[in-house]
Amino acid sequence: MSAAVTNVPHHGAADPAALPIIPWPSAVEPLDGPGPSLADVRVEAPDAGLAALAVEQLAGAGVRVHDGAPVGVTLRLDPAAGPVGSDSPERYTLRVSADGVVATAPERVGLLHAVRTLRQLVPVGRASAGEAEAPAVVPAVVVHDAPRYSWRGLSVDVVRHFFGPEDLRTVVDLVGALKLRVLHLHLTDDQGWRIQIPSRPALTERSSATQVGGGGGGYLTVEEFRDLQDYAAERFVTIVPEIDQPGHVNAATHAYGELMPDGEPTAVYEGIEVGFSRLWFDNPATEPFLRDVLGDVARMTRGQYVHVGGDEVLTMEPAEYARFVELACRVVREAGKTPVLWQEGARGPVEPGTVLQYWEPKGEPDPFIAAARAGARFVMSPGNRAYLDMKYTPEHALGLEWAGFVELRDSYDWEPEQVIPGLPAESVEGVSGAVWTETLATRDDLFSMLLPRLGAVAEVAWSDARRKDWESFRARVAAQAPTWRAAGWEFHPTPQVDWP
Ligand code: ACM
What's this model's pTM, rounded to 2 decimal places? Predict the structure, then answer.
């Protein structure tokens, strides 16, 4: 750990640098003496919902929760909690001492963050067959914590291979464990349409049963999408749905031939090429289609954001592209939501508050700097750092490599405010990992690409850049392995970590 990170341990106290917390907190102060044993605890919380979430977290670490247990885990709303000077609504303080555990935060989300941190401190895998359980002793420590960015996310492609509600709830659990707040779902593309649209039923009736390589597909019904959002929202994770346009639309043009100039539906597509499909602005069927789809999606969305894609439109003149961006953003705004676009959206008219997701680290920075001046907010997902579908190494069986090889350290050692040279730092809204699923067919495939790299991206998004430290991080990653194994979360055992 660098000098800025290390708090000199008191005599007999835990070495804070050895605490297995990811993302690394703002301040960690060891207390003198031993910490409590958390084998059995009782939980006190401001409401039943938070109590249930705390039980869920603690049970995941093998802690038994019952009234009358000797040690208390108390969650309390308190505006004074968190690091000195932080005004983040997510800030919290976690105090773990021989007397018990007290989590304080001004808002409920901070209390859950505190419990997530506590969960990481509980040693996992204590019981082995036929032996007495090892003690669940947790170090005595005070953590004051708050995030660097508010947008800390993961973008998941559920088109190239479909991942259904059960897998996505597990992804929400992973996202939450790393204190991320946004799960962005890429729901439409050339290979399939993955969300039921009441005003346009043919989208899922005709275009949901395909995916890369064939053999399945699927889609989320209105009810499944609602329930997934509810599950995520309880855990303070916001789902951001993406309807990609005006390219990546073969599933739409297959379902509705009227979207094509000749009125003929396009053929299904289960390959992995990009850039060939498109909408046509002057086609009279186009605007009603976008209004129907984006209107329904906005109504179905709990959160503030709707992503309207805009990436990789390789067969359209700039003026027509700009009209699409303007229309899609206007429709989303009229529906009361805030539009998100891939970085190409900077080529269209950008209104204040529009979120641009930066993914392809090449080209001139000027259009992005101009967009920032116009009030755009940036979410950084640079492919050579945050695209977690890139192979770890050339030999890696899964993944693509067009943005390079992304080993764990590549996804850790980068600075969001230097991704676009000259971009004002205050335009950076946050960071998102992204995973595209051309080569990922199962939950294990997906998780082995996410873990451990999503932990790195989460730390880039949460932790003060001066507190990041690779050696500390790789030790803390190793300490997560028992938790991931216990949860059934596949991870890639990169040789960059000394796994237990
Ligand atoms: C993208 O990777 N086409 C956003």
Answer: 0.96
